[in-house]
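W.,

You were right to be curious about this one. When I first looked at the sequence I had no strong expectations either way, so I just let the prediction run and decided to look at it fresh. Below is the sequence, 279 residues in total, followed by the output.
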Amino acid sequence: MALNMDAIGRKIGPMAKTYTWKDPALYALGVGAGFSELEYSYEKDLKVLPTFSMAAIFDFFWEVGALSAVNPAGVLHGEQELIFHNPIPAQGTLTTEGAITDYFDKGEKKGALVVAKSDTTHSNGEKLFTSIMTIFSRLDGGFGGENALKKAVSFPEDPPHMTVSDLPSEDQPLLYRLTGDLFPLHVDPEFAKMCGFERPIMHGLCTHGFACRALIQSLVPGEPERVRGLGCRFTKPLYPGVPIETRIWKTEKGAAIWRTVNGQTGEIVIDNGTFYYDE
């Protein structure tokens, strides 16, 4: 089945999601928070991790997939950019509207990219964040479209200014999926093998959440409300129970670049990371 070319520009939403403090708290646990970061997982004076935004609007991701008619067996999260306008409250109703903006063709047997942009507002009237997501559809390339221009972040040869090590558990996807991403690739061994993997893999957005925690710990400890932007490209799958390192370089006032690597192999699993914050 080919991509639906008529989907570009068609409005998606408004899509509403009501949540309580339990949702961002569960999300925080799903991306490795615990007693050392109680501000994210205890309802008393709860603060919300900025990347909870992706769990909160994950229905939009699937709406993009359905509208574009991608082959679900080949779907991976390709790139993600988040722009934060206001801190995310601990509860309320989120309303998201957006559209598919572009398709890009990497070539037959190389896959396609589906890009979508959305804005999310809170029931208090504030615009909270803008999301620009790219779905990498491994099985939908070769439709004759243009390829995307490569966006590369230039990393210095010097060692990172900060490195945060973490260890997702072997069961991490089972917890993270309860935040909304129920895709069987992350839980069903047979489906994972059908998709070409040895066993279920980590959600890319789960590793993304680990990275966000690392960036906040390193640059704005305990103050997620100071985060203004977070971007990255997902480059390699990661299996649960494998250690990771988030490596961070400060580049200028209020800005840093980062990547997350597999602690066993040194392979980069998230690349081209950018991070902006109020200093």
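Here's what jumped out at me. Helices lie at 22-30, 52-56, 58-68, 172-176, 189-194, 204-219. And, maybe more interesting for your project: The chain has one domain: 5-277.

Coffee later to discuss?

I.
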